From TrEMBL:
Protein name as it appears in the record: Lysine transporter LysE
UniProt GO molecular function: amino acid transmembrane transporter activity
Cleavable signal peptide: none
Keywords from the UniProt entry: Cell membrane, Membrane, Transmembrane, Transmembrane helix
TM annotation in the entry: 12-36, 43-67, 73-94, 119-141, 153-177, 189-207
Membrane topology: Multi-pass membrane protein
Length: 212
């Protein structure tokens, strides 16, 4: 039961969750690259951020409430998510690489091929839920939260705070850098960087899947 005496423990758990979450989430991975590109395209950014935040909130607290037990009951789910994620990220890496190799590829895509809101939201969900690193991070949060016993939900709240902070940084950053991307060369650099990040990620995931 909550009491004033428990406030220091809850604050400590929240602060630890925030620090852990920043360490786990504040990286330029598949989801971050997708959000940055959509923000630069000015394509449904707020809706995408809302979907990502909602998914993070649901699964962070679900992990604390027993998602790990589900994974233990159905161990094949972990491998299935891994290989779906490898295929999905490899496809997007290929698309990014193709745009980077074309002189006007990224700029034309930004000006003419802005996806519908539905497509953008499905993309946000895909880059989150089909990314095996997302599931690994969620499991880490759930494991660490239980070490705080009665304050474990405060730890989860801290991890969610970190997620929201990182999403805000991505959203604001993409808007601040948008003027630079009137130049097609900037789009080629961005798409080339996204392709390299995803290729490295795909390689690491595939190696992990084959070695495991």
């Amino acid at each position: 039961m909550f009491s004033l005496a428990s406030l220091p423990a809850f604050f400590t758990a929240w602060a630890s969750g925030t620090a852990t979450g920043l360490g786990l989430f504040a990286v330029v991975g598949a989801q971050s690259a997708f959000i940055l590109r959509q923000g630069l395209m000015r394509a449904h950014l707020l809706s995408i951020l809302a979907v990502c935040a909602a998914i993070d909130a649901v699964f962070i607290f679900a992990s604390v409430w027993g998602l790990q037990a589900v994974a233990a009951w159905f161990p094949w789910l972990t491998e299935a998510v891994l290989w779906f994620g490898v295929a999905f990220l490899a496809w997007y890496a290929l698309q990014s690489a193709r745009r980077a190799l074309r002189a006007q590829g990224g700029l034309v895509a930004a000006r003419q091929a802005v996806p519908s809101r539905r497509a953008a939201l499905l993309g946000a969900a895909g880059f989150t839920l089909l990314n095996p690193h997302f599931w690994l991070d969620i499991m880490v949060v759930g494991s660490l939260a239980h070490s705080f016993e009665d304050a474990r939900l405060a730890f989860a709240a801290g991890a969610l705070t970190a997620s929201l902070l990182w999403l805000a940084v991505l959203g604001i950053g993409s808007r601040l850098f948008a003027p630079w991307f009137a130049n097609p060369r900037a789009w080629r650099v961005l798409d080339g960087g996204i392709a390299m990040v995803l290729i490295v990620l795909v390689g690491r995931l595939a190696y992990k899947g084959l070695a495991g």
